[in-house]
Design a protein that fits this description.
The complex is a heterotrimer of chains A (609), B (473) and C (283). By secondary structure, chain A is mainly alpha-helical. Chain A is 60% helix and 1% strand. Chain A is globular and about 85 Å long. In chain C, helix 1 (2-25) runs antiparallel to helix 2 (44-74). Classes of the chains: A mainly alpha (609), B mainly alpha (473), C alpha+beta (283).
Chain lengths: 609, 473, 283
């Protein structure tokens, strides 16, 4: 679609009440409009967020009060045993918690929801480069939802080989309950899981092609690459990461599917003896799966943080009323993280049986990847320095991202140190690390982004006071939940154990686990406030104009919410998006589309430091 | 906020409160539906309805009530007080309480719920081998309710001893999903064993009650406490009660009797030439007469000294010290013992190869089922026969395969005496028969042969090692 | 309000450090909530590295946390009347805070290579003699590696331990085989061969700082020297199925003579070829 389409029709032209069914479906269900698609992603992922959160509470319950009757689940599924869950159900809980959170929440909400919604708006385009492909990328998530949803009904209520799905546990049907080939008339849970992941992969690959093309090709006049907001840079680099890394996972998933269904032996060595089962075809290597899996899944974790970093940069600059500190270093850092991200995957495999010499090389590259992240943190601090900080809800979430990411990033250094990793691998130290970066980091950034861009999406503001209550409770409870896990990890408390208290080494850790569980329950409950605020504000929040926050980037010049075609004028860009507090104008913000002052004396000449 | 939203929030909170559950569900014993059905089928077909006679609901409730009265619930177990048999010799109520109930600990800090913590998810709360995990296991966990156990020191149709069960709990069953509980404190292992026996007693009693129902008229109650008002009712009640207690006593007596069964094994004679010099009356017990005969024949000698010199010559150890000579001879004797064992494996008296296969891979015959299946589905069941039993709680039957003897995995234990018991007693519930014809010596030769199989060159463990194994450092 | 939020962010470094100090000091109620006892002579380096990184990252954590707090406090729009510092960055600062972390991180990485090599690459040797080139510590040396004391095989869901018996060869008929119990002589270099029979497991000895995934199709070795007697846990540290939590083993470290006695005792039990029913006692 040409980017010079002017005269977009606003939402008002459609009218609310007088559509035929066909029109409704074309407008809101199978829409080609990137904003609707973005919202579709947003609603789906927020619902899955709830599912993933409840699964986490199941895990926490079992760790706090092992073998006691689990609320709701106990009565529904295990009433014969007095509500006590079975051990294989626990493996399902943590497998599906991670799977849902990673593939159905974090990745789609960053790329699918925010990427979709923001990219054309921020670069001044009227839609994505390939609107139909965009729509397909959302609808390809639905087969994945169905596959994973069905897997909950395939005994024992889901796949149980971990989200990492290591072979041979995931491949040999008799090794794990979820790995059985067929259960009644349903394919085994692990098969459904693999199919689900394949669909997610296809959806993401479609999206990434779209984002890359759109950002490269459809920028408004004057929008050079180095005038892009960091959100867009992040989305762009993330899309490249997805395009290069995902095919490896999809191929690996396919190989595992073949191993399970057709008896190939990519990942199975000869001579496996699993009790009474017949020997499996051999000639393969379990480590091959790990290499292929982590080759994707390590860049995946950067896919899960870079867009959040980008959005946080925009929010902090906006509410510090000051330019981002070190824009180009920020861009290079994002690229550096992405580039280095491809050569660190082995740090998940230090004790896996991989050649120990590789442990040394991966240690160096993993240590180095801490550098660009550190640079970014310093630059955020630099952005706050000397500003006029407005403590709005989005700003609070963005600041907490910085504060929490410091913890998550620093704990990563322990793991990068290979000898130390010998001890902390597969313990709660790792769990603490990734929950800090993923929840206290990305999810907090996502909340902040929702509060920030909600007015643009729905034309109404979310309630600020309830937003702050939500922030405060979430912040306190998440730290209570995840910080203590570092301590557990230092004791060597292992992951994925349904009942760790039989071990002498870990017997005394139950009270701390109970503390964590109580905080986790508080944390999940606090999200009710967010949900209520979100739903209420969507219909009854106070209406706002185009730029309620006084921000600079292009999306704030379009109507709230924007109609088809986004802009009711042709945007032309004169500067970068971070000109807050500029001496060229009297206001404390300086939109990208605003022409410079005609009087040359007022023009600002930047000095280079 | 308008009223709509207040209502919405209020109902949301109310739902949360409800969902949190009003207390935990209580575990209950499951009925032995399969056995009930088996007994109903034994009554034959009702000509009017053209289906099998069924026990009526009241009879069913009588059974349930009697079970509850005698054995209690999973949270609060009890044992029947029987005049003719001392149940406390089989099951200790104190230890039962440690094993029963939900997982936790009582006021004194003593653990409770051991069975549910360690066993129930496979073996089921009722001990029916059908817990939530059971369907995913191969082989399935044991169903205790028939009182049949595979790996014990007592013969078929006898109960296991307490120590037999304790060994299984302590060592686990290699090659299956039954783990070793060696690391649990001794008292907890004891509590679990007692609870297993309790569940077994309970299951067996339930079976007997269903069998008793087949003796009743249609509509006749198994036991009627309310009828105790009239004299006749009281007599009948007492009679019935006595009958039932008698049945339970029989079951308990079997368990007590198992401890008295003679399971002793005379010490295996050593593979040394000196045993050949024993006087004839001791030879049977402490020597290897058959081996002696073999070697004498092989070497064409008729005295121990001749045999010794002949062997020394043959093994070329003439100029070695006496110790080395003895070792070499012992090795030769061991090899000869294994040869005898091998012949027995393939020949009439033991005939192992017919099931275990000519290469001892367990592929001699693979179409049979174990007795936990054949009891219900018939001796030679077909696929179609299983459906009705699976609907009543049987796990989808699988063929029972003879052991692959070249793997070195021995489910009942790897000690020589374990293998001796398997061969002598058979394995209850499976097609592995006991063998009374083999002499003690022959069994030892067989045991030696079987124990050597995994180390023969054709089952070379290194050949069974994964092909692309990489040795690291 | 801004003051409140700044203080909230101040709580992060304060409480964060506080909890770590509390755990390390072992004050009530969180006693025994830190690194477990290390009884491996070679394990101390791991603990020192852990502590070194802890202090380094701790310092950075405190510094950045305090800076964040300070900036939020000082530049709160509600309290701060000055105009914003309209700066796009500082090239000098960028260089400084790129170089210092890189150097630090590289240093940490290289500093640890020896510890890693000791733990995973340098199996104890019995003897090393120069090869044809006449020089020691070259590739053609004739090396006799220390043979394994025992072979530990992980399977669902137990550790099968196997010792060579009198014949000294692992893998023969008379090996002592036992489940979930591993005995080790104290004060000697011990090498264990570890493998898996079915799926991935991981051989984790918390008190020895040993962890190695056991991979079906691969034989690997771990080595250590235990310097204290006692009973310790063996933990499985790689998801292996529903019974992953059940794979508890018991490591007993005892002096050499007790170890030999135990091994002989096990061998006797294992070769038991007679049975008398115990009269009123335990078997």
């Amino acid at each position: 679609m040409s980017s010079t389409t002017v005269g977009a029709h606003g939402a008002a032209e459609h009218g609310r009440g007088s559509m035929t069914v066909g029109e409704f479906i074309r407008t809101y269900v199978f829409s080609l409009d990137h904003k609707i698609i973005g919202l579709q992603f947003l609603f789906s992922t927020l619902l899955w967020f709830l599912v993933g959160g409840l699964l986490a509470l199941g895990i926490r319950w079992q760790l706090a009060w092992p073998w006691s009757s689990m609320p709701i689940i106990g009565r529904m599924l295990f009433s014969g045993e007095g509500g006590q869950i079975s051990p294989e159900f626990y493996t399902t809980l943590f497998t599906m918690h991670a799977t849902v959170m990673i593939f159905f929440v974090i990745i789609p909400i960053l790329a699918g929801a925010f990427g979709n919604f923001l990219i054309p708006l921020m670069i001044g385009a009227d839609d994505m480069a390939f609107p139909t492909l965009n729509m397909l990328s959302y609808w390809f998530m639905w087969p994945a939802f169905i596959c994973i949803g069905l897997s909950f009904f395939s005994a024992p209520y889901g796949a149980g080989a971990g989200w990492t799905s290591y072979a041979p546990l995931s491949v040999v049907g008799e090794a794990a309950p979820g790995s059985a080939m067929w259960v009644g008339s349903l394919p085994g849970a692990q098969t459904l899981w693999l199919l689900g992941i394949t669909f997610v992969g296809i959806s993401s690959m479609m999206g990434s092609v779209n984002y890359m093309t759109t950002i490269i090709q459809m920028r408004a006049p004057g929008m050079t690459m180095f005038r892009l907001p960091l959100t867009i840079w992040a989305m762009f680099i993330t899309a490249i990461l997805q395009a290069f890394a995902l095919p490896v996972l999809t191929a690996a998933g396919f190989m595992q599917l073949l191993d399970r269904t057709l008896g190939t032996g990519f990942f199975l060595p000869e001579g496996l003896v699993v009790n009474n089962s017949l020997p499996a075809t051999g000639g393969g290597q379990p480590l091959l799966w790990q290499h292929l899996f982590w080759f994707y899944s390590h860049p995946a974790v950067y896919i899960m943080i870079l867009p959040a970093m980008g959005m946080v940069s925009d929010i902090i600059a906006c509410f510090a009323r000051k330019p981002i500190f070190g824009y180009k270093p920020m861009v290079y850092s994002i690229s550096g993280i992405a580039g280095l991200g491809f050569i660190v995957w082995g740090h998940h495999m230090f004790v896996s049986g991989m050649n120990p010499l590789l442990g040394m090389t991966f240690m160096v590259s993993t240590m180095m990847i801490a550098l660009p992240s550190a640079v970014k943190v310093f630059n955020w601090l630099g952005t706050v320095w000397g500003g006029k900080v407005q403590f709005t809800t989005p700003m609070l979430f963005a600041l907490s991202f910085v504060s929490m990411f410091i913890i998550g990033g620093l704990s990563g250094i322990f793991m990068a140190a290979t000898p130390v990793d010998i001890f902390i691998h597969d313990t709660y130290f790792i769990v603490a690390h990734f929950h800090y970066v993923l929840f206290s980091g990305t999810a907090m950034a996502v909340f902040g982004a929702i509060y920030f861009w909600f007015p643009k999406m729905f034309g109404r503001m979310m309630n600020e006071n309830w937003g702050k209550v939500h922030f405060f409770l979430t912040f306190v409870f998440l730290n209570g939940t995840f910080f203590a896990m570092h301590i557990l990890g230092a004791v060597g408390f292992p992951r994925r154990l349904a009942d760790p208290y039989d071990y002498e080494t870990f017997r005394q850790l139950q009270p701390m686990n109970q503390f964590i569980t109580i905080c986790a329950i508080g944390m999940v409950s606090s999200q009710v406030i967010f949900a209520a605020n979100f739903i209420y504000s969507m219909f009854y929040g106070p209406r706002v104009g185009r730029n309620p926050w006084g921000a600079n980037s292009l999306e704030w010049t379009a109507p709230s919410p924007p109609g088809h075609g986004n802009f009711d004028f042709q945007p032309v860009v004169y500067r970068g998006p971070y000109e807050y507090g500029s001496p060229e104008v009297d206001t404390d913000f300086y939109p990208q589309i605003q022409p410079p002052p005609s009087d040359p004396a007022r023009r600002y000449k930047p000095e280079h430091h | 906020m308008n009223d709509r939203w207040k209502v919405a929030v209020a109902s949301l909170l109310a739902t949360c409160a409800l969902c949190a559950g009003c207390g935990a569900p209580v575990a209950e014993f499951r009925r032995y539906e399969m056995y009930r059905r088996l007994q109903e089928k034994s009554l034959g077909i009702d000509p009017e309805t053209k289906t099998y006679y069924t026990f009526d609901a009241q009879q069913q409730r009588d059974v349930d009530d009697l079970m509850w009265a005698m054995f209690g619930t999973p949270d609060e177990p009890s044992v029947p007080q029987l005049a003719d048999a001392d149940v406390s010799k089989v099951v200790d109520l104190n230890l039962l309480q440690m094993a029963a109930g939900p997982v936790g600990s009582d006021e004194t800090g003593r653990p409770t719920g051991l069975y549910r913590e360690h066993c129930a998810h496979c073996h089921g709360v009722t001990g029916d081998g059908n817990g939530p995990t059971a369907i995913f296991l191969n082989p399935y966990p044991r169903d205790y309710r028939a009182g049949r156990f595979k790996f014990k020191s007592t013969p078929i149709d006898t109960r296991p001893t307490h120590d037999d069960l304790k060994k299984i709990v302590t060592d686990g069953i290699p090659g299956t999903a039954m783990p070793s509980f060696r690391l649990l404190p001794e008292q907890e292992v004891e509590a679990l064993v007692h609870y297993v026996k309790y569940l077994s007693l309970r299951g067996q009693t339930e079976r007997k009650l269903y069998e008793t129902l087949t003796q009743l008229e249609a509509g006749e109650r198994l036991i009627n406490p309310a009828a105790g008002n009239s004299d006749q009712g009281q007599t009948q009640f007492k009679e019935r009660l006595g009958l039932i207690q008698g049945l339970a006593s029989e079951i308990v007596a079997e368990w007590i009797g198992a401890e008295e069964v003679d399971t002793h094994i005379d010490p295996r004679p050593k593979l040394e030439l000196v045993t050949f010099s024993l006087p004839p009356e001791e030879e049977e017990k402490s020597g290897f007469p058959k081996l002696k005969e073999e070697l004498f024949k092989q070497q064409a000698v008729s005295s121990v000294d001749e045999l010794r010199s002949r062997l020394i010559e043959q093994l070329d150890v003439g100029n070695q010290p006496a110790e080395e000579q003895d070792k070499a001879i012992a090795k030769h004797m061991a090899s000869a013992s294994r040869q005898i064992g091998q012949r027995l494996y393939y020949a009439g008296k033991a005939n192992c190869f017919s099931c275990h296969g000519p290469s001892a891979l367990g592929d001699g015959q693979t179409t049979d089922y174990d007795s936990w299946v054949t009891e219900f589905a018939g001796k030679l069941p077909k696929r179609a026969d299983f459906a009705e039993w699976v609907a009543l709680g049987m796990l989808p039957p699988r063929n029972i395969r003879p052991r692959n003897l070249r793997q070195g995995i021995y489910r009942g234990g790897m000690r020589p005496i374990d293998l001796y018991w398997r061969i002598r007693n058979g394995i209850e519930g499976t097609p592995m028969p006991g063998n009374k014809q083999l002499t003690s010596e022959e069994i030892w030769h067989l045991v030696n042969y079987v124990q050597s199989l995994p180390y023969e060159s054709i089952s070379d463990p290194r050949m069974a090692e994964p092909e692309n194994q990489r040795e690291r450092m | 309000m801004g003051r409140f939020w700044s203080l909230l962010f101040l709580m992060v470094p304060v409480l964060g450090v506080g909890i770590f100090v509390w755990a390390i000091a072992g004050w009530w109620p969180i006693q025994n909530h830190w690194l477990p006892d290390n009884i491996n002579d070679h394990g101390h380096v791991i603990d020192s590295l852990f502590n070194f990184i802890l202090y380094l990252t701790g310092a950075i954590f405190i510094a950045t946390g305090l800076v964040l707090f300070w900036f939020l406090w000082k530049y709160d729009a509600a309290q701060n009347a000055e105009p914003v510092k309209y700066s796009h960055g500082s090239h000098t600062l960028e260089v400084v805070w790129s170089i210092i972390p890189s150097v630090t991180l590289l240093f940490i990485a290289i500093y640890q290579m020896n510890a890693w090599a000791d733990a995973k690459l340098r199996r104890p040797e019995i003897s090393r003699t120069p090869g044809p080139d006449g020089k020691l510590h070259t590739d053609d040396d004739v090396v006799v590696l220390q043979p394994p004391l025992a072979e530990v095989t992980g399977r669902q869901f137990e550790w099968r331990v196997r010792y060579a018996a009198a014949d000294g060869i692992l893998g023969t008929e008379d090996d002592v085989q036992i489940t979930n119990e591993l005995h080790i002589p104290q004060g000697e270099d011990v090498v264990l061969r570890i493998k898996s029979q079915d799926v991935l497991h991981s051989f984790f000895l918390p008190n020895l700082r040993i962890k190695q995934d056991v991979v079906p199709g691969m034989k690997q070795h771990v080595w250590f020297r235990a310097n204290r007697t006692g009973v310790y846990d063996i933990v499985c540290a790689e998801l292996c199925g529903w019974g992953h939590y059940k794979m508890r083993g018991r490591l007993t470290v005892e002096d050499r003579s007790s170890f030999n006695r135990w091994l002989a005792d096990q061998h006797t039990k294992q070769t038991q070829a007679e049975f008398q029913k115990p009269t009123g006692g335990e078997e």
